[in-house]
Amino acid sequence: MSDKLAKDTGARIAANTGLMFIGKGGGAVFNVVAMVLATRILPPAELGALFILHAFMLLASELGTFKSWQALIRFGVPHLASGDTGALHRLLRFTLGLDIVMALIGSVIAAGFLWFGHELLKLDSEYLPIALGYCALVALRLRSSALGTLRLIDRFDLLAMHTLVQPMTRCVGVVVIMQTGGGFAAFALVWAVAALMDYAVLWGLALWQLKVRDLLAGLFAKPPTLKAPEKGLWSFCWIANIDASIAVAKLELPVLLAGGVLGPAYAAVFKIAQQIASVLVRGTQQLDEVIYPELAKMVEAGQTHKIWPLILRTGGIMVAIALVVGGVVAVFGPDVLSYALRADYGPSATLALFLLLAASISAAYAPLLPTLYAAGKPARALLARASGVGVLLVLFVVLAQSIGENGPGWAFIIGDTVALVLAVAITQRTLSEQVMLDRQKTTG
Fold first, then answer.
1. pLDDT tens sequence across 336-359
2. Least enclosed by CB within 10 Å: which of 25, 69, 258, 402?
């Protein structure tokens, strides 16, 4: 890879991250609008119950998936480059098999937990029938292989547009409820329909792009399978599953903890604050997904020595964006939220500032964890993420009980700082080792 190609890689990362940031940012705006409108109809306890239910569904879905998109990229890059369609199809059938089996298992476990343990989530029994029906979404959430397909073939423009499907559907649904009337059940239906639209559109885009590239014919000639077509695939998937589960636990488990520790009403306050901060949080997640395929190509080409400067620039840009967004929210956010929300939701403004500061810290290490995956060291990424999230979750409970509503904000700040320090140290060591391997291959 020449210097020009290295620059092209940086340009693609910047362009694709920009597309995804705009898409996720727009989606976050629609989500905030939907939530603000929902606060005009539902009291905090009912809205909090809705957020708890949706967070539980997402957590159950993600814990039950192997994040097969990561394996699809890690093992699919050489197949796509060499034009080996048969190998790519075998890989896709394996990742789809993982998605299907784990989604079914996850839905059964989720329904069982809700039936016997809904009181732990502070969900009243009156919500149980709706909650059990909501578990069907876990069985239908087969997104990972479709996401991996679009990322593998570099169609981040389509992914950016797709991120608007679910929040826009929610907005439309909430407006309909405002016009026709409806309570908790109506909102649960809107959230469920929005999720189903998300899944359907995503798979439509993935299949369309496979067909455009003459990669669809023969894919379904054989059924999905759990037989790994390549050595090391299962071990990679297990580690990726644990790491991804920890990542989603950081996003969704705090909503459940907020409800369990301080009640459903506070869960609504926390979720609104989290959604405001998600403009940055989702942006850093999208960087992870955008940069990973490019870094995998650089490692494959023996250009590891060019990665560290690239991730330093990328991380610096993400932090700068985070600070700008955080500053805007700090100046204008409290007044805007005070006007838009009922008084019951007022604490969301202050809590959002804490979460935005934490998001700026996580933005700094956003390029580091995918670097470890690209270097074939997913266990090291797992260590850094798990340490930060472990600190966060423990402090979330402790500080929420000791200092109240702002305690969870401090927990996020401290947890992300721990993850940043570890990620920097581990990534530096990993890249040094990989550079030595590249030199040995060149001299050998």
1. 656 555 555 656 667 777 887 887
2. 402
End-to-end alpha-carbon separation of the chain, Å? 19
**pLDDT tens-digit map of 190-202:** 988 999 999 999 9
**CB atoms inside a 10 Å sphere around CB 431:** 21
Predicted model pTM: 0.68
Residue 307 CA: distances (Å) to CA of 86, 178, 373:
31, 51, 13
CA 420 to chain centre: 18
Question: 339 Cβ partners below 8 Å, 6+ apart?
Answer: none
Distances (CA, A) of 400 to 260, 284, 346, 359, 419: 11, 26, 17, 19, 21
Rounded CA gap, 316 and 300, in Å? 25
**Range of the structural domain that residue 41 is part of:** 3-443
232 is written with which tokens?
A: 């090391």
CB within 8 Å of 161: residues ≥ 6 apart:
23
Question: For the chain, what is the domain count?
Answer: 1
Burial environment of residue 192 by CB neighbours within 10 A (0 to 12, 13 to 18, 19 or more): buried
CB atoms under 10 Å from CB of 22, counted, come to 16
